[in-house]
Amino acid sequence: MSDRLWVGTRKGLFRIERDGGGHWGIASTAFLGDPVSMLLPERGGRRVHAALDLGHFGVKMQRSGDGGDTWAEAATPSFPPKPEGLVDKDPMRGIDIPWSTKLIWSLEQGEADELWCGVIPGGLFHSRDGGDSWELVRALWDEPRRKQWMGGGYDFAGIHSILIDPRDTRHITVAVSTGGVWTSRDGGARWDLIGQGLRNAYMPPESAGDPLPQDAHRVVQCPAQPERLWMQHHNGIFRSDDGGEHWQELQDVPPSSFGFAVAVHPTKPDTAWFVPATKDEKRFPVDARLVVTRTRDGGKSFDILNQGLPDEAAYDLIYRHGLAISADGERLVFGSTTGSLWVSEDQGDSWRNVSKHLPPVLCVRFQS
Amino acid sequence: MTTLRFTPNLARLVDAPPADLQGATLREVLESYFQSHPRVRGYVLDDQGALRKHVAIFINQELILDRVTLSDPIGEHDAIFVAQALSGG
């Protein structure tokens, strides 16, 4: 049972803890004033990683070895020199894709000292020394079809989801907004574009089923059954039963199949949670009623969960990394752009508000 | 000697004390500084070694011309100031 969780916000990092009386509150803060775009508490350890987006001064990695009491700057994933004369332009707008890390957007642990990091403008980085150093995964960056990736909500494409198969940590799957789903079975040396059955409605109709321009908003993997993936896509909710090779779209999910975040139960692959919003440019709760949706039967039906969520009109949007589940599958947390944070201790049946006054929430994670 | 100073906004993020340095171009002066203060490099320059988009550098109150290769010439008594541009960020 995890009594500690981490919240990265537009204005700093918050460590939230549960006291003996069951009350969740802010236990400590770090980097106040600076955006924390991604964070990673390592499995079973005291090491925590936090990615800062310092605006004028670039992105930086911070690392704590004592559970977040003290922090020190660590190496930042950075791009190698761009070859002279190389043309590398965003296909939609024709402007140069910077060979420079603009935002750290995903961070995952493979083996004990192994980290993977996805960034905007589309680079995947690998560390074998716990973040002391990083290496750009050239096979994916140099893949010719990478040049067809496009920015979604940001100016350039980015890798927001990294799935590491717990049975074989050389099997890695990443999702790109906007650039589809890619998988490697040899630790990143070779990559295949996968994703049959995905559907987009923003490209010319002939390209609707092309796996490449798919805008996955977020993809998660069931650790106990790694073939099962859940995706919140720009155009709906999708489920895969074969590691992302093929996808099935779930139609008519109430109250909306638009959103950013998704979480899957660690041992029950048919159980997943979403936080829906009015699509597609509006992006606030449907009818201003903030709810979480949950399926327990692989997407055949959905529960609409709102016990403990606001009765009043709410305009909270939950970003793609703003929803997380604990390692035992009992507790969930989500945080909003309006600075509210809720925790559930019963798989979403009921929610408790932890704060209504945080900065806009960018990412949340339980300490495992 | 050329003096190099940084905006106080940088000081809360990284140790970047002022220094007296030598160098014929801005690049040479900065590289000399980064040798003794390697962490500062990533705050001022991007991954390709160009000036970060929202950082500005003045030589004697004049904005530099070459933000990519940092070839602006430096005189012996020039004062270089690394500023946070009033944009973006």
Please give a structural write-up.
The complex is a heterodimer of chains A (about 375) and B (about 90). The model of chain A has no long low-confidence stretch (mean pLDDT about 95). In chain A, the strands form 7 sheets. In chain A, strands 3-2-1-28 form a 4-stranded antiparallel β-sheet, with no helix packed on it. A 4-stranded antiparallel β-sheet of chain A has the order 4-5-6-7, with no helix packed on it. In chain A, strands 8-9-10-11 form a 4-stranded antiparallel β-sheet. Chain A has one helix spanning about 140, and strands at about 5-10, 10-20, 25-30, 35-40, 50-55, 60-65, 70-75, 105-110, 115-120, 125, 135, 160-165, 170-175, 180-185, 190-195, 215-220, 230-235, 235-240, 250, 260-265, 270-275, 290-295, 305, 325, 330-335, 340-345, 350-355, 360-365. Chain A contains 1 helix and 28 strands. Helices cover about 20% and strands about 25% of the residues of chain B. Chain B has a 5-stranded mixed β-sheet with strand order 2-1-5-3-4. In chain B, strand 3 and strand 4 (about 60-65) form a beta hairpin. The mean pLDDT of chain B is about 95. At the A-B interface, loops of A face helix 3 of B.
What descriptors fit this protein?
heterodimer; A: 368 residues; 28 strands; globular; B: alpha+beta; Ubiquitin-like (UB roll); 5-stranded mixed sheet; 3 helices; 5 strands
Residue stretches of chain B low in confidence (pLDDT < 50, at least 5 long) are none
Average pLDDT score of chain B:
94
Extended strand count of chain A: 28
> In order across it, which strands form the biggest sheet of chain A?
3-2-1-28
Structural class of chain B, by secondary structure, is alpha+beta
Roughly how much helix do the residues of chain A carry, as a percent range? under 10%
**Quaternary:** heterodimer
Corresponding CATH architecture of chain B = Roll
Number of strands of chain B: 5
The biggest chain-chain interface is:
A-B, 16 and 19 residues
Q: Work out the count of structural domains of chain B.
A: 1
CATH superfamily of chain B: Beta-grasp domain
Compute the gyration radius of chain B: what is it? 12 Å
Tally of separate helices of chain A: 1
What percentage of residues of chain B falls in helices of 4 or more residues? 10-25%
- Principal-axis shape of chain B equals globular
Give a quick account of the main beta sheet of chain B: strands, pairing sense, barrel closure. 5 strands, mixed
Annotated CATH topology of chain B:
Ubiquitin-like (UB roll)
The whole-number mean of residue pLDDT values of chain A reads 95
